[in-house]
Amino acid sequence: MLASAIASGVVLGAIYALVAVGLALIFGVVKIINFAQGALLTVALYGVYLMYSHFRIDPYLTLPAVVAGMAALGYLIQTVLIDRVLNKERASQLLITFGLAMALQNGCLALFGADYHSVNTPIDSQVIHPFGVAVTVVSLVAMGGSALSVAFLYLFLRKTRVGTAIRVVAQQPDSAELAGINVRRMYALAFALGCALAGVAAVLISPMYPIQPNVGDTFGIIAFIVVVLGGLGSVTGAAASAMLIGIGQSVFATMINVQMSTAFVFLVFIVLMIVRPNGLFGRTERVA
Amino acid sequence: MSWQRARFSRKRLGAALAVTALAGTLAACSSGSGGSGGNAVSEIRIGLIFPTTGAMAPLGVQQDNAAKLVLNWANAHGGINGAKIKIFEADSQSDPGTGATAAQQLIDQDQVQILIGSYASGIAQAIAPVAQRNKVVLWEIGAVAPTVAQPGDHFFFRTVGASPTYAMADLNFLKAYLAPKLGKPLSQVRVAVAHEDGPFGTSVADAVTTQAKAMGVNVVTDIAYSETSPDLTPVVLKLKAAKPDVLLITPLVASTSVFWQNARTQNFNVKAIIGSAGFSSSAFLQKFGAKGVQGVYDVEAPAVANMNHADLQPQVRSALATLSASFQAKYGSPCLVHCGDAVGGTYDLVTYVLPGVVKSGSVTADSVRAAALKVNVATGGTPQGFGLKLSPSTGDNSRAESVIMQWQNGKLVVVYPQALASAPPVFPMPTWSQR
Fold first, then answer.
1. Which residues 6+ apart lie within 8 Å of B401 measured at CB?
2. What domains can you pick out in chain A, each with its CATH number?
3. How far does CA A127 lie from the centroid of its chain?
4. Of A70, A181, B143, B357, which residue is least crowded by CB atoms under 10 Å?
5. CB of B233 within 8 Å of any CB in chain A?
6. Which of the residue ranges A206-215, B4-13, B178-187, B423-432 would you say has the lowest mean pLDDT?
7. In chain A, which residues have their Cβ closer than 8 Å to the Cβ of B264?
8. Sheet with B403-408, edge to edge strand ranges
């Protein structure tokens, strides 16, 4: 039972990480708390559903289109909305992303209605038993996708010129500007990348969850916990804290009490924030 | 508790006459007679308050649409003794606080005289005090927790069966059908209970465990979980460890899909599962297909489109056929459980209560209450098959019943009690390897 609980916790952690790393990147670079990350996940899920229901495309094959669409949407959001409030009060920034979340969520409701939709893949019902624990193949795909996404992001930020420029902008935007880096463009790229990651998350979790206008809420809230616990802006910290939360929640629920498991996560979070205010994995405001 | 059909009695005769009288009045009004002489009521302002956005919207919208359909149907037939129903709508946004505010707005701004709601017990709990404080009747057609209204709230009426009727249907079915099929005496059947931890799931689970204890049924585990949990593997693992013969589970829509996927992954098999709410939703069928949901039971008020209509009174049968067909044509889905709740409850209001209110000459909470308490409809007199007799102390319909349904070949059919059954139950439920 413990092994099964750990396995399901790892899957859950991988899903949390998928949603949270995009949020961590956006905060780390643009320094804005994006309340719309959950709603963006919802939009991406509807993108998967649209292609699945209209063109009978397997959800996994929608990945390129959904990621490209979400990246474009992210770029647009940054340049049209966020850019205008970057030098304004923090409250304006928070409220604009909150308003965006409401607009996206209610837009989905208006376009698609309140019904729950679902997408299926041929591997939907396949279960394998590594080390004696039952895991669905779609969960394994989500875990693999999550690991690849985090690794890709880490390498992109560390090993490419654009990634390095993004990190420079994250750490010293004024110096970056003096060095000739187009800071606004880097912000837009980071936001686009963060939204693209929400697109990846949507594709990978689409066979696992019913799609409706509020589906992003649960993940959006937990993503904040993950990001703060990992150290605001730290992508690798977010991935690691996602795993800790996923496994902790699942083991506590299985071995102690299901109903108290979410409260347990939040209690641990509060305690850790008191002990380590900058998160489990180091200082604030860094990426990768 | 009796599931038997009532014999043709004075009560039934009275109900039939009431329906006939209403039909006659509606016909007279539609021909432009203007209603009965001395009628001071020309308009009845009714507020519909349901969660049409938010997590509860899929079924909340169904109830809102179905209630509207019945009110418009009544208007199309000349209104209530000549009085037209004016409909106002508000969205509780799946949130109790918003529901309370929206109810107050309906009362203040639109001056509604009756509220129809609320789909969910948690929301109804917030709306009921607002209605009571403002002396407006809350006509509840969906929420089932017994604690929705405060004791002494005289302006709360509920047509659908409260959660003890779910427990009663579960345990009667267990005793009459499942235990013999399992080849065990009732006391040796291992029953597991799981439920979402809101007012709905908790009230049903509490009723089940209390009644099970009284009947000597062995409840081996009782697990509460959050409806918004993204993973219910821990619940499945605990249930599996308890080795139940039968699982009684009360989720809402979102967690149903997650639970069923996790049950499949963990190869959790029991001889029978009786679910509720999410288990009767079209989303459940859509996600898992006819084979994936085959044999799963559901306890609720009946899916009116798939129940036996033979024992309904002729006028009710005819109205239900019209309303079901209109719902299907307009919204593209059959009128199942939640649509049935709204069709039944709203039909009861416009057919049995409002004529008395109009006759009284004024639409007030007191006149609605007085008319509601006079209603005495026998079994077969409402679209949901049961009767209508509202309690003066709790406002509950003492004749409301819940039924057992089962997914059979992609259709949710009523299987118990026999009088409303449109198909016999199938046992045992297929295992995951057979799906």
1. B1, B3, B161, B165, B168, B169, B301, B385, B386, B417
2. 2-118+130-275 (1.10.3470)
3. 26
4. A181
5. yes
6. B4-13
7. 125, 127, 136
8. B218-225, B190-196, B246-250, B272-275, B297-300, B403-408, B411-416
The angle subtended at Cα B147 by Cα B144 and Cα B150, nearest 5°, is: 130
Could you give the CA distance from residue A184 to residue B298 in angstroms, rounded to a whole number?
56
Which residue out of A258, A259, A265 would a mutagenesis test of the B interface target, given it has the greatest number of B Cβ atoms within 10 Å?
Answer: A258
pTM of the model: 0.83
Rounded to whole angstroms, the Cα distance separating A2 from A255 reads 7
> Is ipTM over 0.90?
no
User: Does residue A45 carry a pLDDT above 90?
Assistant: yes
Total residue length of chain B: 435
Query: In the block, which residue shows the tokens 């998350």?
Result: A201
Please answer yes or no on whether B264 and A127 come within 8 Å at the CB atom: yes
CB contact under 8 A, B261 and A136: yes
Which of B318, B350, B262 shows the shortest CA–CA distance to B74?
B350
Q: Which of B222, B238, B265 to mutate to test the interface with A (most CBs of A within 10 A)?
A: B265
C-alpha B230/C-alpha B320 separation (Å) is: 39
> How far apart, in whole angstroms, are the C-alpha atoms of residue B204 and residue B164?
7
Q: Tell me the per-residue pLDDT of A16-41, one tens digit each, with 9 for 90 and over.
A: 999 899 998 998 888 888 899 999 99
| Residue B408 DSSP class | E
User: Given a cut of 60, is residue A283 above it in pLDDT?
Assistant: no
**Chain-chain contact of B233 with A208 (C-beta, under 8 angstroms):** no
Of A117, A136, A258, nearest to B238 by CB-CB distance is: A258
